[in-house]
Write a structure and sequence with these properties.
423 residues; six-stranded mixed beta sheet
């Protein structure tokens, strides 16, 4: 994707949302903050900072193909929800589900204050249409709101101007063939089940980030490989023995370059990765995932990776995205959003955690996101209620990390004993 294509990539998601009005395309995050809840005046000032960071956020929501409907008032971005007193995380998570079940209507992004669930603690829920922002942009906006410098991004060389080389023609043929050929993707839902059957379920689990990094170093893989391999193992018990095909995840790839390293908007391209759920051990699944994700690095360096959208008229982009994300072609979306490495503060109040919020594509039963914040990795799961065993998925993901840790980072004798006991 070239630098000027961020807006075009965003339009794909607006088109996709227009074609699937019953599926919300909102992404976001929940900041859990220690301290007294802020006043309305403080929240309006915070909203003003967010709108200043990315001017398109000042506008009202607009239908595809029309101009923005004018500038929104500060109050239109804000909602307040008082929770059951001393309800703790159970009340907070239930409230997040309720808020997210009501998509934004008049604006393309919003902030919700959630408080009352615990003394001296509140949460700020920030969500926005995926056409406006990607995960890294959300982190950038949050950093701007707390007056912190934005995250540094990997600097990549400028993309050459596209020309019809042999490689570019081949890339286009591969892309068209990938959309035209029959797909054999495994569905995670019930037989012939069609999502959505109700408001999505949302679950979170966390683990120390250094733990995942240690596994990756010891195994000679990436953190993303460990995350996806553990996901493959967590999904394995829920797959039918008679299921044929593959579990195919779309992994969003950050395409920012040197001139857009800190830009806000939608700078991503989806890369397909087959999750090796059929492999019998955690170590084998990690090795297979490492091979499967090689196309992510290849795609990052390939100037022709987005050639299909380069040549398609923009009015067809949404249709192409619909076909790419069709449940017969894509099982799920699995994204990873790096965040701040150190704890942040909001007007003197400590931000204790950042919980990611993912969207669920039309007809899909599961999406996941791994978010990082201050040495902690949060796995966020959003699933259609018809997906059986969803409550166990986060625990199974942690168990897969345990198995990988036992195999790669513990002394050999201890690792062997753990593998035997697991069997």
């Amino acid at each position: 994707m070239h630098d000027h294509d961020a807006a075009t990539a965003g339009e794909r998601w607006f088109d996709y949302a227009a074609a699937h009005p019953h599926s919300s395309m909102e992404i976001g995050g929940v900041a859990v903050i220690a301290g007294p809840a802020p006043s309305t005046t403080e929240l309006h000032a915070l909203i003003d900072l967010v709108r200043a960071a990315h001017p398109p956020l000042r506008d009202r929501a607009r239908p595809r193909g029309t101009n923005a409907g004018g500038r929104a008032e500060l109050a239109e971005h804000l909602q307040e929800v008082e929770l059951r007193a001393h309800g703790g995380d159970v009340a907070l998570h239930a409230a997040i589900e309720r808020v997210c079940a009501q998509p934004l209507a008049d604006v393309s992004w919003g902030m919700t204050l959630l408080h009352g669930h615990r003394d001296n603690e509140f949460a700020l829920l920030l969500r926005a249409h995926h056409g406006l922002l990607d995960g890294m942009s959300l982190i950038g906006i949050m950093l701007a709101a707390v007056r912190e410098p934005r995250l540094p991004h990997r600097r990549t060389p400028p993309a050459p101007s596209p020309s019809w080389t042999t490689g570019r023609v081949r890339a286009l043929v591969r892309a068209v063939a990938g959309l035209a050929l029959p797909a054999r993707t495994i569905s995670l839902g019930p037989p012939r089940g069609q999502a959505p059957t109700g408001p999505p379920r949302r679950l979170w689990v966390h683990t120390p980030l250094p733990r995942i990094k240690a596994i990756a170093r010891a195994a000679g893989t990436s953190l993303n490989d460990v995350y996806l391999a553990a996901l493959a193992g967590a999904l394995r018990p829920g797959l039918s023995e008679r299921a044929t095909g593959t579990v195919r995840a779309i992994v969003p790839l950050n395409t920012r370059r040197s001139s857009t390293s800190t830009a806000l908007g939608n700078f991503h391209r989806g890369v397909p990765v087959v999750l090796p759920c059929h492999m019998p051990t955690a170590a084998e699944r990690l090795a297979a995932t490492h091979l499967a994700t090689a196309n992510i690095l290849t795609s990052r360096r390939d100037p022709d990776a987005d050639v299909l959208f380069d040549v398609l008229p923009s009015r067809w982009h949404g249709r192409a995205l619909t076909r790419i994300l069709h449940p017969r072609r894509t099982t799920m979306v699995a994204t990873h959003v790096p965040g701040p490495a150190h704890p942040l503060e909001l007007e003197g109040r400590s931000i204790e955690a950042l919980l990611p919020l993912m969207f669920l594509p039309a007809g899909h039963h599961l999406s996941v996101c791994l978010g990082e914040y201050a040495g902690t990795a949060h796995l966020a799961v959003v699933a259609d209620p018809s997906l059986s065993g969803i409550d166990e998925l986060p625990t199974r993901w942690l168990a897969e990390l345990d198995a990988l840790q036992a195999t790669f980072t513990q002394p050999r004798r201890s690792s062997d004993a753990n593998v035997q006991s697991a069997r």
